[in-house]
Here is the input.
Amino acid sequence: MSGGSYYVPDQSRFPIFMAFSLFLLVMGASSTINNLDDPNSNSAYILYLGFASLFLTLFFWFRQVIKEHLAGLDSNQLKQSYVYGMAWFIFSEVMFFAAFFGALFYVRTLAVPWLAGEGSKGAAITAIELWPAFESTWPVITTPDNGVEYELAEKSMAWPGWDHALKWLPMWNTIVLLSSSVTVHFAHLGLKSGNRKKFNVLLGVTVFLALIFVGLQAAEYYEAYAHYGLTLNSGIYGSTFFMLTGFHGFHVMMGGIMLAIMLARSVFAGHFEDHDHFGFEAASWYWHFVDVVWVMLFLFVYIL
Amino acid sequence: MSAVIENHHEDHDHGPAKGITRWLYTTNHKDIGTLYLWFSFAMFLIGGAMAMIIRAELFQPGMQIVEPEFYNQMITLHGLIMIFGGVMPAFVGLANWLVPMMIGAPDMALPRMNNLSFWILPFAFLILLSSLFMEGGAPNFGWTFYAPLSTTYAPPSVTFFIFSVHIMGASSIMGAINVVVTIMNMRAPGVGLMKMPLFVWSWLITAYLLIAVMPVLAGAVTMMLMDIHFGTSFFNAAGGGDPVLFQHIFWFFGHPEVYIMILPAFGIVSHIIETFSRKQLFGYSSMVWAMLSIAILSFVVWAHHMFTVGLPLAAEIFFMWATMLIAVPTGVKVFNWVATMFRGSLTFETPMLFAIAFVVLFTIGGLSGLMLAIVPADFQYHDTYFVVAHFHYVLVPGAIFSIMAAVYYWIPKWSGNMYDERLGKLHFWLSFVGVNVTFFPQHFIGLAGMPRRYPDYSLQFADWNMVSSVGAFLFGFSQLLFLFIVLKTVMGGKKATSQVWDGARGLEWTVASPAPYHTFSTPPKVD
Here is the structure.
């Protein structure tokens, strides 16, 4: 907080454009989802329009911010505001994941055992009258109604034992994602020591690893749907599995896109200095966050 | 570099832009604060009109005015609009106007994002309100949207509801991040944490709560969306899920949300009572610690909304005691407000009247909350009008009175004009009488067993319901007087001095009235 004058940006069209894009996006998404059964529905075009205008707005907004920064308009105070802002944004993302992890812990430790008749609530009528055959296990690939409303899966995604470990995709995914956290860290060190080449190469490797991760995840989903009969519709195990890994996979894509943009900025525009590169740093924080979430996922969704 | 960028430095001396683009493209915290406040006033009147429909239907037993389906949509939208459209944006508007001035900052830390946070809201509520005209009608499952009412049995418009909640949440999170960053990073030299005005403290804590729980709400509606359209079974026991899971997640958001709607009120009332008692606030640091304790405790009390759902005994006992613990820091605050007034040179201008009514009536709401926290008693009270009376006592003469108090207290600073004191007092007394006539009888009919959320009721509840409706019409129509007073003040009136109130402390009273478009272009000196 030095004594100089403050910087307040001029009026800007970007925010209201972005709000309107979000409006188009969610109106389009809602109508599309409500008309999934109707092949003649045109709602998806609103959704596409929303996406397009959102990306355009974001592009020009970020371009403006970068231009201002390169013109030297950003005070140290504003830079610090970006740092705090990104940190709190990541905290909000942690809480978003917490909702889904909370759901997982709740069904694993309480709901499923109760449905099978355990504990003080297990005397509930559901376990005795409605679904007496249901047993509490995890991963639970049966459902209480035994496949009436929800389809039963044949196999879960859980740890298959050491004999099959090498063919187990989540293991490879873990290795890929953990390595990418290491490469992005060394890319950062390279940038800090002024070694642009090292930065570009290692960041490129990171983006490549992100692509591999998404590819492996897609292969895993294909495996689940095509060979295991494990779908969104196969009861609570399928629900939590796809919700957590899918939401995480979406975040990997976001983080990967951020890092790819940083790479493009560095390679094509020569952005970032050894002491001045918060755009990259924010993206790398996000990447480490995505990585930590994966470790939690690996533990609680796959291993335990 | 483009001309846009080169203009920045001169821009500090400029006034607001002309025409509508001033409001559409603004990055000014005062403009955005004004937008938030008018938006929330509009929502307050729309949500209030819905409350009038509800009370008109309940004026007599039997079905008079609306269909039961429409009644359900009214209670749902009334709750959603008042919470997400009325109270929360009003507090964000106040934060926008006041926080930068109180800490000696030129503006909010991230001014363009600030504009985005606001402009999402009109679109979100457009979507929500448009659901009234959709096939199957608007959401009809209550503002708490419990599964399976909101999943298996929901009207198709629930999809639009889910996405509008998503973008409202994004708006709140961005607004909250902006407030936190502003407070942490933009304080003028000398404004240490324990020197911050209490309104700033209350908003720092509120913003933290918002960032922590709005994403959880987003998670809840996302799971609903998946259950409705994509075949998952989070809230369906037939697939191994649990409808009670929805309630846990919802109230993990919902209880901190309750404090999001009252902590800024604590801040406001502390300032007003201090000013009109002409004494220093009693127990500043205990006020800060009390708010922090309330915020932390708010994360471990959520299941007190679910005592009758069939929780294990241990959970019921834990949540009962944790809830009662909140009475301690809240009691500290009420004690401090009373102690501030003790032997002060009190005067009773309109803001002070609202603030004192806040202390008294909020305490009544708090005590009925304690009654509800007792598990065996709650088995009796749950989902009756006693609950309705309780939360309206903390929200209407609590949160909303504090917002009105804030408007009367700071409007001379915003507009440069004094409001009409006689009309202000009239508005206060009409509101005060109206609120109590509306909600106090609801304690009686609730204890006598009248359930909430029904458009019809047994004959023995008729008298008090009629009284309650009369009070509601009185309260509702008095708010048009409030609108008139605000408009009259903005248009003209006696010029306000910079100090405005002789006992007022704080940086915002050191600048002219109305406050200049850009308050502090260099940091002020604070001792």
In short: The radius of gyration of chain B is 23 Å. Residues 20-510 of chain B form a domain with the Cytochrome C Oxidase; Chain A fold (CATH 1.20.210.10).
